[in-house]
């Protein structure tokens, strides 16, 4: 059921990526020769059963982990050839990351958390872009609040704003609604969708939730460390169909 590819350029490219853990009898092949383009200005979901390699793929793409072999390009830069200092700079300047657990500093206000990566880098936010991000996430009246004074959904919106504030080339979100109720999760998904539609942001999200996947432009399915299928213009029902078919193939 692979759909016709988009003509958009790639914000990130993965080529023949392989990643293993353990040795001998305990060897696990988390990624097995994966090649994939993540297209600019699109919202992409990565799905698959537990252990399929989806989080490993995201961490390798976001320069949080290194593969055994293969290449990852963010724009024209090959992450696998960069030294640690250059990787840190690229991660800071070109990549945004949203964690399932928010990862906010409890002693800082929402605004200080949003600006923290830029403060560490000694950079000031672009005023117009920063205002646009704050308005998009709907947090202007909560900027002086600390995380403990915010709901889970508001904390995740702070985390999304932090990822967007530096205007990265690509934002990775690892199960961003996993710790939220359905209403707060929908707010965060609508926010990510809006960042793509209104601001041309590129977002890649790992999720296990067919409803979350239905907010995206494209769903890539992994199984046993390989890309096995993809959908464009996904709906909850179409995603469930693919997942059920994958489960049947695994069972047989």
Question: Can you put this structure into words, describing what you see?
Answer:
The protein contains 8 helices and 10 strands. With 252 residues, the protein is α/β, with parallel strands linked by helices. The chain has a domain at 10-100 and 170-251: Rossmann fold (3-Layer(aba) Sandwich). Strand 4 (69-74) and strand 5 form a beta hairpin. Helix 3 runs parallel beside helix 5 (152-165), helix 4 packs antiparallel against helix 5 (152-165) and helix 5 packs parallel to helix 6. The two termini are 20 Å apart.
Briefly summarize what is shown.
This protein is of the alpha/beta class. About 35% of the residues lie in helices and about 25% in strands.
Uncertain regions: pLDDT < 50 for 5+ in a row?
none
Major beta-sheet overview = 6 strands, mixed
State the CATH architecture of one domain.
3-Layer(aba) Sandwich
Residue fraction in strands: 25-35%
What is the CATH superfamily of one domain? Answer: P-loop containing nucleotide triphosphate hydrolases
**Total beta strands:** 10
**End-to-end distance, in Å?**
20 Å
User: What Rg is obtained from the alpha carbons, in whole angstroms?
Assistant: 18 Å
List the secondary-structure elements in sequence, H or E.
EEEHEEHEHHHEHEHEEH
Helical content, roughly? Answer: 25-40%
Number of helices: 8
Please write the CATH class name of one domain. Answer: Alpha Beta
- The secondary structure category is alpha/beta
Stated plainly, the CATH topology of one domain is called Rossmann fold
Overall spatial form: globular
**Whole-number average pLDDT?**
90
Widest sheet: strand order?
6-7-8-3-9-10
Protein name: ATP-binding cassette domain-containing protein
Pfam family, one: ABC_tran
InterPro entries: AAA+_ATPase, ABC_transporter-like_ATP-bd, ABC_transporter-like_CS, ABC_transpr_LolD-like, MacB-like_ATP-bd, P-loop_NTPase
Keywords: ATP-binding, Nucleotide-binding, Transport
